[in-house]
User: Fold this.
Amino acid sequence: MRAARIWRRVLGVDNTVIDAVGFDEQAGAVVVAVRPQARARHRCGVCRRRCPRYDGGAGRRRWRAPDWGAVPVFVEAPVPRVRCAEHAVVVAAVPWARHGAGHTYGFDATVAWLAMQTSQTAVCELMRIAWRTVGAIVARVFADGDAGADRLAGVRRIGIDEVSYKKGHKYLTVVVDHDTGRLVWAAPGHGAAVLAGFFTALGPDRCAEITHVTSDAAGPVAATVARWCPAAVRCADPFHIVAWATGALDVERRAAWNRARGPRPAARPWAGAGYKSRTRSAGDPATAAVKNSRWALLKNPEHLTAAQRDQLAWIQAHDARLFRAWQLEEQLRLILKLPSAVAPDALEAWIEDATASGLPAFVGLARSITAQRPAILATIEHRLSNGRVESVNTKIRLIVRRGFGFHTPEAVIALAMLSLGGDRPRLPGRTNPRISQ
Assistant:
């Protein structure tokens, strides 16, 4: 095999002529002088159409290629300019790198793959590049792949949620395809205006093809979905419904603890700010039993330990209000698992029982359940939840934590779409990603 062909394999370049290979002592790197083959010359760097040559440009320039062992490698070539009918005078395209990039396709692909697997600090040290360069390469690879793909094609059942990516209430709105599990859309911010951007990108015709939408019970989400996809079935996420019930149960548990402690003593004007009254029975056995019952009340009955079952039996015998709250929470959790034929009647009976219970937290919960009743029954009928979306959110948080944070939401979105959008970049030269040797 000729040396030129070997170097084309090493660099991972096509339609390229190898002119010379040398070593730059000052840069401490191998420099490979190349030029495009005749069929790849004089093309617009933006649209890749063949165009007339304009001038020689700025002379020769270099692109960073993957290292050869422990030695950096650069590709060097002249960069003429061409006159494009659409884009005017522009730098000519080269077959080994993207337009405007300072790295070859192979280098970009390696960095993008590493960014999905490890921290940006490790990528910077391994690839000898700056922190911001990693983000720029990831955004470039994502934009290149996104330009040739319609991520919203064939979407029928979607899940919508918000995920925090940075301190200070910085959120991303994400949309996941239930059928494929792919992240199909993400944007910085949250609320109706941001979500409307997704449906605008989807278009009226494809909005009409959406059949099911899962989300939490947030009003802006429901209103936006009803506006853009009036024919879609909206399903309330059962996890959030159960979370409402456990929150109401915890409110009643704290109220029971305050009842067990007895009335608050009168304030003493001579007492300082750090004074704590000892007249309330915080150490009473009954008070301690209620205080330590949190997990006995919140855990599913089948997962209770023997000690927690004893705690629950004590509550049944000594605090009827708290035990009734636990019963209502468990009944709602079980209703979400019932067959769709019997669930409507059971849910209606639960709403009546909760309203008549006299427990303030559950009376308020009954009003919320009544407002979300159609979405809850749709969830039971179609057995859809935001589980896939929560899984994607967990992976996005892992991406942010592994990268030790990102300066812009666009960098998070680009890396999340690369990792979770179904078109993950591969390491150059790996024809089968499952083979590690």
